[in-house]
Amino acid sequence: MGTRTDPKKGWLEERAALDALDYPVPKAASRWTYMLGGLTASFIVMLVLTGLYLAQFYNPSPIGAHDSVLYILTRAPLGDWVRSLHYWSAAGAVVMITAHLVHVFWRRSYKRPRELTWWAGVGMAGLLFLLIVTGSALRYDQEGFEALAHFVAGGELTGTLGAFFTEGFTRSAPLLARIFGLHTSLLPLLLVGLMGLHFWLIRHLGIHADDEEREVFRTHAIRLVGVSLLAFALVGLLAVVAPEDLGYPPVAGVEITKPFWPVLWVYGLENLLGAWGMILGPVLLFGFLVAVPLLDRRPDDTPGRHGWLGWLALLVGAAVLVLWLYGAFGPARQHLGM
Ligand code: HEM
After folding, report:
1. Is the beta carbon of 122 within 6 A of some atom in ligand 1?
2. 8 Å CB contact between 195 and 153
3. Are 273 and 266 in contact (CB under 8 A)?
4. How confident is the model at residue 14, as a pLDDT?
5. Which fold has domain 18-256?
6. CA 38, 324, 268 angle in degrees (round to 5)?
7. For residue 48, how far is its CA from the centre of ligand 1 (angstroms)?
8. Structure confidence by residue, pLDDT tens digits, 23-34
9. Domain ranges, ordered by start, for the chain
10. Is residue 145 lining ligand 1, measured as CB closer than 6 Å?
11. Which numbered atom of ligand 1 lies nearest the CA of 44?
């Protein structure tokens, strides 16, 4: 049987089977609230691209790390800008994933049959959190050094479970190099894998919207690319006008910095509970998120009608916000007894 060709199709259209993108989706998919997940994905693409570039110059040894970041800032072609793009894209991804999470929670899109979609999302939020704390350690200035010291303290507190995060885990590689490995291979691979699962489920379960009107997915995808380019232009500009700085080489034994802003709520909790706060806070928050589809027992899926679960979610959100404010504006404290 010969290959069927359609003279009306463009070169790429035919060879890349682009018409497979012409399946119907609700028109609501192109509302800005439904773009938040796609924008998160776009920021993650930007993080991977800029991260690949930074990795060409970064030296993950405790002796060379700080100097290599200085090298990126001063010598690598466009290194200063690309590093700030990486920083601002991380901030963008955090804002978008949080807004997306709130939106799908509000719509109660975690209800049957979308529980796995929700859990894959919670997994990705957890991975993004880990990418942020491992990335913070890599800068290896005072803030980075203190982030690394928190990994060690967490590892020691949790015994065998956290042994990987202690220097004593192996003599052949420093902890910083192993954190670099996590940040650049295992965590992004897991994130991209879960994103594949998330997209597969959305493709086959359909988008959760009440909209009867339809458009083809290709139209939605083109809009999403347009909005993503605008978002990239914004972070590109922010990277110029507000470049991310680098502190002095670290001094061991002191704890004087505060972490990257998405982690400030954990810092606030540490102010109250000491080092256990950094373990307890994320475990409780992510535990709550995992439990959401199991706790909402109402049969309908009307947006906003969560019953008591809505009040509990508000309480959790308010607690995170108050802790964040306390972390941001409260005193800088020693947590590790360094
Ligand atoms: C890297 C992170 C993520 C990416 C790239 C992503 C991407 C997307 C996209 C493109 C959609 C379809 C459009 C929409 O409904 O908004 C979607 C839907 C969904 N996402 Fe995410 N998402 C991420 C994280 C999360 C998180 C953290 C959660 C919640 C814990 C979550 C839960 C859901 C659910 C339940 C749906 C189905 C909603 C529907 O069908 O309308 N996602 N996601």
Report:
1. yes
2. no
3. no
4. 93
5. Cytochrome Bc1 Complex; Chain C (1.20.810)
6. 135
7. 19
8. 999 999 999 999
9. 18-256
10. no
11. 1
